[in-house]
Amino acid sequence: MPSEAAVFAALGDETRLALVKRLQAGPASIVGLTGEANISRQAVTKHLHVLEKAGLVTCARLGRTTVWQLERPKFDDARHYLDIISRQWEGALERLRVHVED
């Protein structure tokens, strides 16, 4: 199972974020993703494999076409992780506020 670090590393690239945004509308083939990305099919494929390794997308063969789609549960896991970090920061900031005001 990919770690949270792998997920956030995969999402740390502008092109991969654009692919994720496009896939939010629904599954798409490499051809569909390439036209909107303004990069080669090979580059799109490499980015999709990074996202796949992080558990964020999956692919399926439909005849001769490979269709890519988001793995929504992995995004839910990332959101949960960010919620935990957010609560930790809120607690730390509250402790700092109390300390400074004393």
Rough outline: elongated
**Main structural class:** alpha+beta
Main sheet makeup: 3 strands, antiparallel
Series of H and E elements: HHEHHEEH
Distance between the termini: 45 Å
At the first level of CATH, what is the class?
Answer: Mainly Alpha
Helix content: 55-70%
Structure summary:
67% of the residues lie in helices and 14% in strands. It is an alpha+beta fold. The chain has one domain (4-101): Winged helix-like DNA-binding domain superfamily/Winged helix DNA-binding domain (Arc Repressor Mutant, subunit A, Orthogonal Bundle), CATH 1.10.10.10.
Q: Would you mind describing this structure in some detail?
A:
By secondary structure, the chain is of the alpha+beta class. It has one domain: Arc Repressor Mutant, subunit A. It is built from 5 helices and 3 strands, in the order ααβααββα. The protein has helices at 4-10, 14-23, 30-37, 41-53, 72-101; strands at 28-29, 57-62, 65-70. A 3-stranded antiparallel beta sheet has the order 1-3-2. The chain is elongated and about 70 Å long. The termini are far apart.
Describe the structure using short key phrases.
Arc Repressor Mutant, subunit A, alpha+beta, 5 helices, 102 residues
Summarize the helices and strands and which ones pair or pack.
Blueprint lengths: L3 H7 L3 H10 L4 E2 H8 L3 H13 L3 E6 L2 E6 L1 H30 L1
Antiparallel strand pairs: 1-3, 2-3
Protein name: Transcriptional regulator, ArsR family
InterPro entries: ArsR-like_HTH, HTH_ArsR_DNA-bd_dom, WH-like_DNA-bd_sf, WH_DNA-bd_sf
GO molecular function: DNA-binding transcription factor activity
